[in-house]
Amino acid sequence: MSSAIFQETKILVCVGSGGVGKTTVAASLAVLAAKEGKKVLVLTIDPAKRLAQTLGIEGTKDVTRVPGQDFKGELYASVIDHKKTFDDFVARAAKKSEAVEKIYKNKLYQQLSTSLSGSQEFTALEKLYSIYESQAFDLIILDTPPTKHALDFLQAPQKLSALFTEGVAKWFRDPAGKKTSFLGKMLHTGTKQVLKALEVLTGSNFIHELGDFFINIEQWQEQLLKRTTEVHRMLTAPSTRFCLVTSFDQAKLKEAEFFSHQIRLGGHNLTTVVLNRVFPYWLDLSAEAAAEKAHSELVNLYSQMRNYYNQKDQLYKKFEATMKKDARIFRIPDLVKDISDLSGLEEVSALIVEGEKKA
Amino acid sequence: MKQEIHFVTGKGGVGKSVIAAAMALKKSREGKKVLLVELGDISFFKDFFDLPSVGYQPTRIKDNLSVALWDGEAALKEYARHFIKVEAIVKLFFENAVMKALVNVAPGLSELAIVGKVTSGPRKHGPPLPFDCIVVDGFATGHFIALLEAPRGMAQAVQFGPMGEQSRSIDACLRNTDLCHYHVVTLPEELPVKEASELIHRLKAEFSVSAEILMNKIIQTKLTSADLKDAKAENSDLGKFAEYLDYQLTRQSEMLERTKQATEKVQHLPLLYETYAWTLTEKIAEALK
């Protein structure tokens, strides 16, 4: 029997703000899919040490068959190597090898390719696309980078490609518009003023570095635009589904409502919302324990926590009510213990099945 | 006027925003004029404190306490307005599609604009920022490091001109421990503690600053494993709770040991059973040293 989460799904993208347990949810969903007979790959960003060990991907960035599995299907895992993915893309996109060397040496590129401004999102999608294209798996589950907001992930490729569609390199190559027609000159008057303003703020040295950077990367333009289109098509395909992972307080829930709206506005299929680590596993709100004999401080702590989670439960119920019409919503309790082997992931995947049934 | 700057960071989900707010509240109650700054383009505090709006310009929310939301583009715009003076050019500059894309993607520019704004008081550069204390609810660990590294990266790439000069001045300010204070929030859990320790080491190695760790959500109890033994054996909700508590307490003391190896500066903050935002913030403010 197949879970509704995976129905007609080739790619499942797990989004959500940092610290909500996206990676664990992604890995557990992958285990679930493998149990159901799928050949599945989970692409992770920065897994915890024990989770990486469990998946057999500690110290390697290759696609690895997860060790010690005995599922109906097959489970593979991989960590995305940002620097390498970015460099590989540059090498493929640039036509001449000396140009590749030159861009590797540019200081602004060195910053861009490592940690800044949407580059991780870009590389995650680049990696996802190349595997998707290879059709080697029935299902790919993507864990997304730790952005402050789920939206950053979806906006990153557009942001990058906007830079190229506007032909910024042209500016730096020929800011005065010397070689262009009369009309070109007219257009460039505005450009000149803008560049002048930029120079007042930053100095000619910066303009020079920036110009060098853009002229060097100009040759990726064609490849990048092609990729952006392909990636966009992949992300809006009916077989690509989004799973929003969220947790905790009221502000986070409001944020989740906003995200789900935005994800849909972007033409994506948000089908699942997971409220992760909502309540600790020990808590059964429907049954209060009789506790006459127990240590009084224990009983005291217990009822404090119980009350606290009861209050929270009200918030979650409201959230569920507003979101329910658009997506499947379910909760996964907090297991507390760190996941240290495949059976830990299976435990979470069993909770997912249970949560799904209730939803 | 000497302005203090406090950066609060940590792994996502550890509670850094609430702690930043508590720190700001505490300072404001000491009589300082405080600005609580959040970064990015979506406000957390607006929803959290149920405020009508939070924007780039500070909004007063309590006595001596204001909140603002800063992003790279707005910071750059304000900066440009301050120095270019000619509104028409500023407008042309920011309405230009290329400039917009550039600000969004140009490596480090947005980060530089933000830290430039945060440190503008002590550096006496840019529009005035009349506060005694700035508390920044910083990005999560990885992005936070990128934010701090941007000025140095830019100073290396651009050696001359105003950009290089400003970058060096921002970088120097970030390293000045009389002005800037760093607080790393963590939970008594493996991953947040690992991230916090690594961040502490990097801040020491790359910026020569020693940051403080704020260990959040510590369960406060005198109960020991021995006390929980009987209850654990019971097959009830309470029994499961005792098991959970025992596990948590063991892990908690293990994590406290581990943080001590990273730094001597560790503060403990209690786990609070409070869902109302202001009460929660006040309680944490009281717990802060």
UniProtKB/TrEMBL annotation, chain A:
It is an enzyme of class 7 (translocase). Its EC number is 7.3.2.7. SUPFAM superfamilies: P-loop containing nucleoside triphosphate hydrolases (SSF52540). InterPro entries: ArsA/GET3_ATPase-like (IPR025723), ATPase_ArsA/GET3 (IPR016300), P-loop_NTPase (IPR027417). It comes from the Bacteria. It catalyses: arsenite(in) + ATP + H2O = arsenite(out) + ADP + phosphate + H(+). Residues 9-312 form the ArsA/GET3 Anion-transporting ATPase-like domain. This is arsenite-transporting ATPase. The lineage of its organism: Bacteria, Pseudomonadati, Bdellovibrionota, Bdellovibrionia, Bdellovibrionales.
From TrEMBL, chain B:
SUPFAM superfamilies: P-loop containing nucleoside triphosphate hydrolases. This is arsenite-transporting ATPase. Gene3D superfamilies: P-loop containing nucleotide triphosphate hydrolases. Its EC number is 7.3.2.7. Residues 5-158 form the ArsA/GET3 Anion-transporting ATPase-like domain. InterPro entries: ArsA/GET3_ATPase-like, ATPase_ArsA/GET3, P-loop_NTPase. Belongs to the arsA ATPase family. PANTHER family: ARSENICAL PUMP-DRIVING ATPASE ARSENITE-TRANSLOCATING ATPASE, ATPASE GET3. CDD domains: ArsA. It comes from the Bacteria. It catalyses: arsenite(in) + ATP + H2O = arsenite(out) + ADP + phosphate + H(+).
